[in-house]
Amino acid sequence: MIVSKALCISTLLLAGGFSFEALAQVPRVDEMLKPKQSFDRIVSPSQPETADRMARVIAGDGNYLLNIGPTGEGNLPAQAVNELKVVGEWMKKNGAAVYGTEGTPFSHPARGNRKTSIPMTTKGNRLYVFCETGQDSVTLPGLESTVVKAWVLASSKTVDFKQTKGRLVLQLPADDDSLMPVIVVECDGNTIVVD
Q1: Which of helix, strand or coil describes residue 170?
Q2: DSSP of 46-113, one letter per residue?
Q3: DSSP assignment, residue 169?
Q4: Which end of the chain has fewer beta carbons closer than 10 Å to its terminal beta carbon, N or C?
Q5: Beta carbons within 8 Å of 34's beta carbon, 6+ residues apart
Q6: How many CA atoms lie within 13 A of 160 on its CB side?
Q7: pLDDT at residue 188, as a whole number
Q8: What is the phi-psi region of residue 83: left when phi exceeds 0, alpha when psi lies from -120 to 50, beta otherwise?
Q9: Phi and psi of 49, rounded to 5°?
Q10: In what order do the strands lie in the sheet with 147-152?
Q11: Each residue's pLDDT tens digit in the chain (195 positions)?
């Protein structure tokens, strides 16, 4: 129990900071295991949960750790291999939103009633917005830069948008059901200005 708490604390430190509030949310190992399961059968999060966690850590300038290790027989559990494949496939299509980027320029943009913040990264005059699977639109309050164009990173499909003073609404293509699509928002100028 102490070792797992220490590993979780080190993950929090690597993920962008430590706070006692975050420590209170760290699950205990016995809470992560289903009854009658051993350590090599830890229940993995769903694909959307894994993608969402990874995006939020990346948007906070952190490093996402999957905490995957071999079983007592020296093999990787099938669940772990599947999780690695999901992350690998997503990174092949959306790596530009991760590598060489900086975390969100917004402190806490609203995402309607569903979330308190939208994970996003920046590189130069581009903003990479991580969307939930099946989401139809995203609203970014506080974007002062003029948007030139927007598209889905993995498919290059054009994203319709409407920008008013300090607010940008992005409309995802109706046929996009990919795992956590990333919208690239290209702004006029060399940097992104937020309110």
Answers
A1: strand
A2: PHHHHHHHHHHHHHTT----------TTSPPPHHHHHHHHHHHHHHHHHGGGTTT-B--S-SS--BTB
A3: E
A4: N
A5: 41, 43
A6: 6
A7: 92
A8: alpha
A9: -65, -45
A10: 120-123, 126-130, 182-187, 147-152
A11: 344 434 444 444 444 444 545 445 444 444 444 444 444 445 567 777 878 888 888 887 777 777 788 888 988 888 888 888 888 888 899 999 999 998 888 764 444 433 347 888 899 999 999 988 888 899 988 888 999 999 999 999 999 999 998 889 999 998 877 888 999 999 998 877 777
Is this structure's pTM higher than 0.90? no
Task: Match 């009633």 to its residue by tokens.
Answer: 113
Residue ranges and CATH numbers for the domains of the chain are 1-32 (no CATH), 44-195 (2.60.40.1180)
Q: Which amino acid is at 107?
A: S
pLDDT at 42: 52
Of all helices (H) and strands (E), which one includes residue 129? strand 126-130
Please report, as a single letter, which amino acid is at residue 69: G
Q: What is the pLDDT of residue 57?
A: 81
Going by C-beta distance under 8 Å and a sequence separation of 6 or more, which residues neighbour residue 98?
58, 91, 121
What's the length of the chain?
Answer: 195
